[in-house]
């Protein structure tokens, strides 16, 4: 159909065009409308399921205790208050905890991504003895939950020694618990939180990059390390950004390793877990109420503390979402 004929056809009324197409135009239009409505309803439902709990926590966090038990109040508080945030910040030692959490999460995430990038690139590009066996071990790190080796980890770092050398020299082993050192050692050895997943993601990304790029660099005189640093790493920025965000967020909210190794370091995840007990102690000993905190008020302060924990992550995502989305769109690169 020429452009002139198409323009003349579009000037005809809808029903006339539908008659000429023997009803096909009407069926197509109805089908498109139904598809758009179904897609909009599905997207709205998914967004509502994700946002509704957060919106509910935001509403509750500004309610006074009497509003929690008022059946007439659903979303908008009648007695608006900021005291819940003040109490939550006090119980969690928010200033100290957030600084410690940022330092620990940032350093651990950087160390994990640096090590996992080297290992993932090695699995993608080099052949070495027992390669399939070692990659199977990486898969086991992903599949096996860390709780199954918690006892071994505890004993290993509680009585830390290197082939008996430390005990032979000093007369006793080292106790590395209640410090961040075990975290760094595990992350450096690719046994940190979710390290197996990062290795797998980075390996898959490097495997999809054409080998001709490296071969051209070798021809130009670049060695293996220089090719990796100057050719492969810049191209892998999207996947490294995604892995860094995953590592940072998982470390930010981790309680398992934090309780096991960082008991004396105040972190948001561990402080949030104790907020209910501290609220009850505050109600009984400071306010002199022997009944303690009610269930509704405890949930209110816990929800407030949860919001204070996740808000920095939302801010981080707002600044890093471009790189995260770019990694998702380029992860399907073809050779």
UniProtKB/TrEMBL annotation:
Keywords: Cell membrane, Membrane, Transmembrane, Transmembrane helix, Transport. Signal peptide: none annotated. It is a multi-pass membrane protein. Residues 98-319 form the ABC transmembrane type-1 domain. CDD domains: TM_PBP2. Pfam families: BPD_transp_1. Its main location: membrane. It is found in: Cell membrane. The chain crosses the membrane at residues 37-55, 98-121, 133-155, 181-201, 236-253, 295-319. Belongs to the binding-protein-dependent transport system permease family. This is Carbohydrate ABC transporter permease.
